[in-house]
Each structure stands twice: as C-alpha cells, then as structure tokens.
Hints:
Oligomer: single chain
Strand content: 15-25%
Number of helices: 20
Helix content: 40-55%
Mean pLDDT: 82
CATH class of one domain: Alpha Beta
Amino acid sequence: MTPQLQATLAKLPDRPGVYLMKDAKGRVLYVGKAQSLRSRVRQYWQAGRGNAQPLRIESSIDRVAEVDYTLTDTVSEALLLEGTLIKRFQPRFNVRLKDDKSYPYIKITLGDDFPRIERTRKLPADGSRYFGPYASASSVDEAMNLIRRLFPFRTCTIDIKDGVRALPRPCLLYHIKRCQGPCIEAIGTDDYRRDIDQVVLFLEGRQEQVARALRKDMEAASERLDFERAAAMRDKVRAIERTMESQKMAAFARADQDVLGFARSGGEAAVQLFAIREGTTIGRDVFLLENLGEGPDEEALSAFVKQYYATAGSIPPRVLLPMALPDAAELALFLGERRGRKVTLTVPQRGEGRQLLELAARNAGETLSREQTRWLADHGKTLAALEELADALGLAAPPTRIECYDISTIQGTNTVGSMVVFEDGRPRSGEYRRFRIRTVKGTDDFASHREVLRRRFNRALSSEEGSAEELRWRLPDLVVIDGGIGQANAARGVLDELGLHDMPVVGLAKEREELFLPGTSVPIVLAATSQALYLVQRLRDEAHRFAITYHRSLRAKAQTRSVFDDLPGIGPARKRALLRVFGSARQMRAATVEELASVPGISVALAERIKATLEP
C-alpha cells in the first residue's frame, strides 16, 4: 500500500458517497457506493475480514494505487452517481450492462411549440420527455412507426412557431399523412399538443385511456356529421385495440409493474424485462450483462437494477424480482426518489406472479443461449483471423486493437480522412473519428494521410496519463492504411517523427488485396480463403464507407450554399426573414439599406454590411 493510499484511507469520512479505485496510471478499476465511505472502503484492506469480497474485486486490490471519492447527501444519490460513473469509465471489475452506451430512447421535445418525436442516445436536461432505454434500435423504430400511423407528428428540425407559416409548402410526409403540417399552419398548437399528450399516454402504456378519448372524439364527430373524421378515429381505435390484444400478458396483472427474469451462464447474464402497464405488456426487452466473474447472481441483478433504472424513462410502483437482493431496501428508496412515489421490490413465491417470472426467465435463458452460440462462432473465426494476420505480418502477438485509415476526395475538393477501430475483430463505432483535411491543397493522398495521422497521434501523445482524453485516443496495436507501399511509407514516417517507432504499420492495396510493409516492395499476399483477408477487407471497406459518407455530406452542403450563407451576421432565423421578404439574392441586391433594415431583426448597421457584401 502506497503512502498516498494510506493517507486517503485514514481520512475517509463517515458519510455516504461513491468511491473510485484507480491503478498507478489513473485508470478506474472499480466503482462502488457506500453508506459509510470510511467503513466500506477500509474493509477491502482489513486482514481476516468477515465479509469476503468477490474474487474479481479481490484480484484487483493489489493494483489499486489511489482511491477517489465523492460525498453525497443520501445513499440514493450515491446509487445514481455510481451508475453514471460505471457508464462513463466502464471499469474492468464492475458488473455492467453490455454495450449500454448504445441503448436508444424515444424523445419528445416538449419545450417546442410543436414538439418532435425522435430517437436519441443522449439524455440532456432540456425539458424533453424520454422513454426507454430500449434494448435495440429496432424496438424504437417499431414503436415510432406505430405512433406515426396513429398520431402523425413532425420529424423536421425547422423552427416552427404558433401562428407563423414557416414554409411556403409542406414536405412529402404531409401528403402521405405522416405529418399534420404545422409548418404551413395546417394544425394549431392546441390540437397538435392534444395529439402529443395522447402519444405520451400511449408510450406510458395507457392505451385504454387513449382509446376511450378517441372513441369520445369519434362519437362527437359523428354527431356533427363529420363522418370522415369519425372514420379516421374509428381506424385509430381499432389499431390500438389490435396492439393491446397482441400485448396482453396476464389478466391478473392490472397493476403497473416491471417483471425481471434472470438467466446466467459463466461470466455473462441476461435480464428479460416485461414492462406491464394496466394489464398490457408495453415492452419486452432483453439486456445482457458482462464481467460477472465469480460474483453471486444477486450482485449481478442488483447492478442491473441500479444501471437500468438510473436513466429509465418510466418507473412503475412495483418491480417483480426472481430473488431477494441484499441491498433491496436501498434500491427501493432509490427507485422511489426517482419516481417521486413509493416503489416496492417483490419476490413472488407462488401464483401468477411466479409464473410470470418463470416465463421471463425462460425468455432470458433463450436469448443468452443464442447470443453465446453466435459469439462463440464469431469469436473462433475472429481469433483465427487475428492469429493469421499476426503470423503474416511478423507481429509478436495478435493485434487486439486495429485502426484503419482512408482518404476520400473528388478532384482535391472537400478532402476528408476517416479512422475506424476494430477491437478483438469487432468494430467499435463509438471510437470512429473523421478528419477534414486542412493543410493539403489539391489531390495528394500521401500528404492527406500524413496530416490525419499526425493529428490523431498528437492527440494521444499530448493527453495526460490516465485521463479520459487518453482513453479516447489510446494507441492501437496495428495501423492499416488504405493504399500501397507509398501510403505505408508515409504513415511510417509520421509515426517515426512522433517517436512511435515500434508501432506496426501496413498498407492494403485495393486491386489484388496485397499487404505492404514500409520499406519493402514485396507484397504479402493472404490466401483467398484466409480469415485474416476477410478481416482486413472488412476494415478497409468500413474505413472507405465512413470516409465517403462524410465526404458526400460536405459536398452536398457545398452544393446547396447560397449567397445568404456568406452574409455577415446572418444566421438561420435572419436568413428566413430575409427570404420571406425579398425571396432571392437578386431582389436583395436591388433593395436599399432602408428596405433591408425594415426586416425584423436587421439593424441599420447590419443592413449596411449586407449591402456592401452584396455589391458586385
């Protein structure tokens, strides 16, 4: 134990909070919460302590060089902060949701006059309403497609104000009845908000309440002899009833509750979540847990409850669990504070509740079995590919992290570079990077590669050791350049310039799929059926796709630019105001300063600058 660690342990306060165990490089090994930081953290180093720690935590104690901690007012706050920090640092020795950064939500922008409904993966405190997390993007798309058929909503990002016509004509979605046209004032704020309120009720699982409101609207329209609207309401009611029938889980489950089924195999587990609202299952998602080690099932399920409900958009008054959790009282208090009302954690022993748990557990077991079967098949191929690649390139060990770079341009314009990352043979899309070439004029593939590599590795070398920035830009085990011997030599020169002499580099030529090591003109040719060849082809194709997608977006923006985009002090709102009044740049050139200044938001000084810019 280092003197610094001894001093930290001696000064730990007897208060609730969250602690982070770090190694000598500052990397977070484990995140935990405690009612008393002093008692809990010191237990890890007490000889002959009664409460033995899980094996994976015991094995990490010798690596701990320092302990950071954050005080909280309550244990519930500590639980929320613990889940947030686990997601942020992905500690090696914590049980965690597998790939939980990718879980999507449905977002309703309630702060807008005409709210949008969209898919998102971020949860900023912006006044919007969030539903989720969902286990996959397809689950979100299915829900949003159903909502759009029932209650057409806008998906555009233009600024629409009540009583202001934002566009001269609507888009295609309006004509196919997937949007109600607030941009052309085809619907008012009150009517649009009423539909959004029904969407919220629908996503909360209150389908019966929505159906009752629609039936009432249908009857009122029929009495007014507005049979077209009445028929539309009738079709919506029928669609909701069909949805409710397909979602029925159990007649007894009239109360709002979540059911958590649990299945485990080795160091991985699956949790099947049935979200039941008013007797209807509105969600059936399976979440995978990893890094369980030798820890008990109760610890794994507790970790899921903390991490899932820390960001869940809806928390019911009752959660059914397959086993009693040691920290159930703390979790119930935590969930109650997040919900604003009491939440009960229940372990049914018999009856329909137990049957529901067993059904959820069978679903979790089936999903875990399929996932592990697929993973084992993929892992075997991937391991063989990495070993073949290491043998072909003469590497000391199979490369765990591989980065591939590509350049995309047309006649030297809008030149961009891409960096894609594969870890253990799998893409890590969250760590992809793209670069807009700044210093190279015209078409120069070698110089563009040099700029991209210099910028990328300078970021890594300039990051503070152990910092989050260093984790984002950690060094690869192999660099693959899309190109031949020239590109490989250019990359080698940049890495040597930065002192990274031992980092392997290889160029991948397109025509015959040859690999070129720097300094040699004799290519390495992999067998046509080689798993290593398939891997480097996937790398190259992914880097090319990522680069050309960025290049096309920049080219499209360049092609749609107008003189309005270059006017000083003119943003989107003022641009729309000028277009609304003058209609074109030609009319603006013909206008006087006084006429320009008459546009709302345009001062005399700004009008003079605009006039000077537009002058031939």
